Amino acid sequence: MNQAGVNEKYKVSPFYVFFLVHSMQTGVGVLSFQRVLAKTTGTDGWISILLAGLIVHILIWVIYKIFSIVPGDIISANNQAFGKWVGNFFSLLFILYFFFLSMTVMISYINVIHVWMFEEVPSWAFAVVFMVLIYYIHTGGFRTITGIAFLSVLLTYWLLFVLFYVMKYSEFTNLLPVFHHTLLDILKGTRSTSLTLLGFEMIVMYYPFIKNAKTSQKYAHWGALTTTLITVFVYLVSLVFYSQKQLELTIWPTLSMTSIIELPFIQRFEYINVSWWAIIIIPNMTIALWSASRGFKRLFNVQQKYPLWGMSIIILLTNVFIFDIDSLYILNKIIDPYGVLFIALYLPLLLLIIYIKKLRKRI
Prior knowledge:
0% strand
């Protein structure tokens, strides 16, 4: 059995890959991606989102093609392509990427809570609550993590209908003009959108935990397609609700739109929105941190709980001593563009090397 082999009782059905991919892609980026995209491509931003979604589908195909040749996870694939030492180096880069992604999601969401709800509560208090919850979920194993992702999608889809409420205050002429940006602008917009669509790459770690993993590819594509279409919908609603200048100046357009909603029993609807968003964020943090600790376990042959403890402590200390907007800015710069470029360039290169080695063995 491959070193990354997993007992059948710990595996999940291929159908759940849809929820694992979709829940990981849908995160805190949905609250703020419109501002950066509007500055770059304006009313043509939806083209950048579709192009970014197409790239995601290509990379998903690349991932499944890699594992059709080398069964296992990214650790196995790296060792097959580059040998033990160089392969372990690239595997360590993946682990660091997963870890920083988890930390970025947590700090970003805590920043949202600070601004919109509890300004005086220290960030470490929220971090403690999240880390205890994440560790508890991890103790149930990957099947429990999958269940959380499944529930997260089911329990949060009602938030999409909130956007239909704000459309009655919209100006649909804001969608014009169309196709008035250059190809370079569209590509720049694609790069700024890519951070919102990240998360699908966690497949490289949990691939061995999927029953009949090859059959799960269509569900991975469906999950990515759903995220892309939702992102396009959110962006188009933002375009018709805000003017171009307003959208470029609004930090969290998605949340700001919901602040106009008033109900007889609650005046500040955005409080519900921000609070409910925690259900969306928890799978983001959980899956990314599980991938990092799982990679550490595979790389150094230790129990997964030990790297999980260590990473949790680092995240807590970060929130205690250096949590500020500057630290969030630095983390975002680590993930984008370096993390995005690493994933987009490395996976096709890895497939090419593995495929060449396979051909040489045949010869």
